[in-house]
Amino acid sequence: MAQKTTKGKKKEKIITPSGRVYITAGMNNTIITVTDSEGNTLFTASSGSAGFKGSRKSTPYASTKAAEIAGNAASKAGVRDVSVYLKGAGLGRISSIKALKTVGLNVVSISDLTPIPHNGCRPEKKRRV
C-alpha cells in the first residue's frame, strides 16, 4: 500500500543585513563562508567550487573568483555589512577581501584568527630534494 505524504512548506531563511565572512586561506585551497551575525552558515564557496583544479586552486585569482561567487549570493540575499575573519597563511587572503569589496559588500572590520603555536609540536624534519 502506498501512502500519500504531504509536503510541508519550506522554511525561508531570514537574512539580516549584517553578517560575517570567514576566509580560510590554506596552501592548496581558499574557502569562503558567509554567515549571519550569530554564526549560522548562509553561503559557501571555494576555489575548487569556482572551477579550478590542482595547483591553480591556490592562486590569488582563484580565491578572487570564489569570493565573488559567495559575495554575489550574499548581496542578492540582502547582506550589506560584513566583518571579515581571516585564517591561514595562503595566497588568497588579501585578494578575496578586495573581491568582497568589488561585489558591493561593506567591509566593517578585518580580524586575523590564524592559529600560532607557542612552541607546541616538534617541527617536521628538513626536506631533502
UniProtKB/TrEMBL annotation:
PROSITE patterns: RIBOSOMAL_S11. Keywords: Ribonucleoprotein, Ribosomal protein, RNA-binding, rRNA-binding. One of its GO terms (molecular function) is structural constituent of ribosome. The keyword Ribonucleoprotein applies. The keyword RNA-binding applies. It comes from the Bacteria. One of its GO terms (cellular component) is ribosome. GO terms for biological process: translation. Belongs to the universal ribosomal protein uS11 family. Located on the platform of the 30S subunit, it bridges several disparate RNA helices of the 16S rRNA. Forms part of the Shine-Dalgarno cleft in the 70S ribosome. NCBIfam families: PRK05309.1 (NF003698). Part of the 30S ribosomal subunit. Interacts with proteins S7 and S18. Binds to IF-3. This is Small ribosomal subunit protein uS11. It comes from candidate division WWE3 bacterium GW2011_GWB2_43_22. The lineage of its organism: Bacteria, Katanobacteria.
